[in-house]
Amino acid sequence: MWISGDDHSHDQPGAPLVRWSTNSEIVAMDGVNLATSTAAPNVGNLSVTKSSRVHIGPKFVSVTQNLQNTEVVKGRCLGLELVSSKRARRLRCSVAVFVCWALLVACGLAIYLICVALPRQQTRLNIGLKEPWYLRRGDWQAMPPYEIEFLKLPVSYVIIGHAASNYCNQLYPCIEQMLVIQEAFLRRGMGDIGPNFLVGGNGYVFEGRGANVFGAMVSSWNDKSITIMFMGNYVLDMPDQAQFDHINVLLDVLVKEQVLRSDYTLYGQCQVQPDTCAPGHHITERMKNFPHWKPHNISGCIS
């Protein structure tokens, strides 16, 4: 091989034939063009005037590229470091433990609020009395109450009164009378029928406001008593024994359901509201039919 300004050839047995020239753009070997070659430009003189952005000569740019394993990237997206130091792993374990405890505390607080702290939705108590002579509100087609307030149970008193209305001793006439009584209480702005229970002739017992609801029969006693009203005017009408017997069954059930205290006291309305005739002297004379009756203030009852 040699360098010269003119083309030369090197002929030697067994050696490839190479032609090369400084002025040529093609390198030939054995008659085959292999590559192109361009002579580097030669700058003899350069004049720069009033320019600050001129670079002469090669310019090197440093490029840094980090390649990471795909699994590491996926792990970071999921909040996990698959390849990490021991210190970083300990930190993440601490964070995970803290999050778990926070979730447990939050769940416990939610359960407490739902089951204990928040007031439960109360409903009218079903005392479970299944007798043919006992009718719940739906049985006598009671109108929905305008308002409802619940008693704090158990209560200590039972008050007996009368409706001073028409007497009934058959089922359907008594149902009609129940609707009349409820309508009268609603017109007076009571929000519902007044007493907790009502009793017709032949011992028909009707659910009025219900066992655990504030009654509206005797002011200052409604929040601490169960009120029971005889349907009829017992200044004139005569009660029958079935009425007393079925009321006693009802009272026993109320004690069992913890609506009444076991040592409750029973009064006639005139005993706690003097100078009134309710429940009527025909009932007052037979109050001994109730085992828990106390004869206090009986002199205040008008005959």
Outline the structure in words.
The protein has six helices and ten strands. It is α/β, with parallel strands linked by helices. It folds into three domains: 1-35, no CATH class; 84-120; 134-300, 3-Layer(aba) Sandwich (Lysozyme-like), CATH 3.40.80.10. The radius of gyration is 52 Å and the shape is rod-shaped.
Question: Unreliable runs, pLDDT <50, ≥5 residues?
Answer: 1-11
- CATH topology of the largest domain, by name, is Lysozyme-like
The end-to-end distance, rounded to whole angstroms, is 151 Å
Strand order of the largest sheet: 5-8-7-9-6-10
Find the CATH superfamily of the largest domain. Peptidoglycan recognition protein-like
| Total strands | 10
Supply the CATH class of the largest domain: Alpha Beta
Please state the structural category. Answer: alpha/beta
Helical proportion?
Answer: 25-40%
Which architecture of the largest domain does the CATH hierarchy give at level 2?
A: 3-Layer(aba) Sandwich
Enumerate how many helices there are, as a single number: 6
Strand portion, in percent? Answer: 5-15%
- The number of distinct structural domains comes to 3
The averaged pLDDT comes out at 82
Along the chain, the helix and strand elements come as: EEEEHHEEHEEEHEHH
